Amino acid sequence: MAVPVEEYLATLLAQVTPLPAEEVAVADALGRGLAADLVARLDVPPFDTSAMDGFAVRAAEAPAGTTLPVAGDIPAGPGRPGALPRRAAMRIMTGAPLPEGADAVVPVEDTDQPAGPAAVPATVRIGVASPAGANVRRRGEDVAAGAVVLPAGTRLTPAALASAISVGHGVLTVRRRPRVAVVSTGSELVGPGEVPGPGQIPDSNATLVAALLRARGHDVAGVHRVADDVGALAAALEAAAADADLVITTGGVSAGAFDVVKEATTSRGFTYTAVAMQPGKPQGHGVVESTRGRSLVLALPGNPVSVFVSFHLFARPVLDAMAGTPRRPGLLAARAAAGWTSPRGRRQYIPVRLTAPASLADPLPTVVPTHPLGSGSHLIASLHRANAIAVVPEDVLAVAAGDLVPVLLVEEP
Prior knowledge:
With 413 residues, the chain is of the alpha/beta class. The protein has four domains: 5-19 and 177-322, MoaB/Mog-like domain (Molybdenum Cofactor Biosythetic Enzyme, Chain A, 3-Layer(aba) Sandwich), CATH 3.40.980; 21-44 and 141-175, Molybdopterin biosynthesis moea protein, domain 2; 49-137, Beta Complex (Molybdopterin biosynthesis moeA protein, domain 3), CATH 2.170.190.11; 331-409, Beta-clip, CATH 2.40.340. 16% of the residues lie in helices and 30% in strands. The chain has helices at residues 5-13, 158-166, 205-215, 230-241, 260-265, 304-322, and strands at 21-25, 38-39, 49-50, 54-57, 67-74, 89-92, 104-107, 123-125, 136-137, 148-150, 171-175, 179-185, 189-190, 201-202, 219-226, 246-250, 271-274, 277-278, 282-290, 293-300, 331-336, 340-341, 347-355, 366-369, 388-392, 398-399, 404-409. A six-stranded mixed sheet has the order 15-12-16-20-19-17, with helices on both faces. A five-stranded mixed sheet has the order 7-4-6-5-8, with no helix packed on it. The protein has a five-stranded mixed beta barrel with strand order 21-24-23-25-27.
């Protein structure tokens, strides 16, 4: 009996432990998983600053209609300004430190002075009063020193790296990148650009999986193409595992006479499971021990669309867990722009093209299958159009145009 997708994924994740931590420069940490809470070393902002170009004043001394002498000029940059004299103003730029004694900034637009480059005026007339605290960013109002800015397990995005730098960090403690080897199986396969002979086809799976890995920031330890030979497959697995934390194989896991992955690994304790999904029903997994240690193996089916779907449903969460960023891919709601059929008793995962809504009248994005035939594990030539996977429940036999459909995004920033 086929097992649910969630049950099979839980079985895989139970075998995963996060990879060891290491220290890297912030500039090299993009996409890594943070191994420990990141605590702010600095207040942000580090001092009271002006939020506007204007004039620093004591609010009580600067009602509308007041003319004040200008006692100085405070640009953004190093150094501390002098104290604000009584009943005076100081010209100040955005981001510059507030002078001692000032409690408000009057924007230049609310004075009689011009915006932009200009000499420091002798006086300034206040047109519109600014109350105490106006246009002032207080020290630590964004983040206080000692606060946790990024919790352990955060996947480091460009914005997260900027946050780390802003609170005083130049080196981060992160999980090592997973190293992944790819093993594509099948005597019918030829390399990219080679002319297929009778009964042969180009091997798109190896490049598909390797590119999916690189797009998500993982290290590809090697790509192996193996014929339908038990001995050759066993040797390839040993070689792949010797330099990888995870090995992904494609093909050879169904019930055919030449499904050598299953034949070569069952004696190693690998488990093969029928998962209640379409495409990608046959799945397998196991462990290969080598001098390097323990390598998890995910054995995916051989049809390219099955490989694509299986990667996003199973390999992605496994790799996220290894990288110390455990998470479940989120689902979005979309509206079907065209109809298609779905198999009885299996959850359908169909590659679709997700399009942003054309107007706010219906704010939901729309989806359409990437191929006019709808679902088919062999429909590789149209797969490049897919930026999402529509998820159709087991009890739904057909999706009609206008139906709401949950979708899994497969393109991420």
